[in-house]
Here is the input.
Amino acid sequence: MLEHLDETLAVERLAGGVGMSPRSLSRWCRDHLDESPAKVVRRLRLEEARRLLEETDLPLKDIANRAGLGDASTLWRAFTSRLGVTPAAYRERFAAPSAAC
Here is the structure.
């Protein structure tokens, strides 16, 4: 998943990649991760966006694209709803010194 966050990751594709049916993958995710496959993908995309904000000086639109979040407005919504802070504020607070320059 991590290598393909910028692509469409439908449950059918994910299940096929691990040799499971979509239903079996959904059950496995619920049992082991307490999340649906879609929530796992959303969480991983947000984590990747956080990493990119901390470690790079890429523009928000590029970060959104690389993390599979589509565009900067989707990135903004994901950050504000899940983390309570805008991507720019997150970067300002957590960026590594070399990424902030």
Notes: The helical segments are 11-17, 22-33, 37-55, 60-66, 72-82, 87-94, 97-100. The radius of gyration is 15 Å.
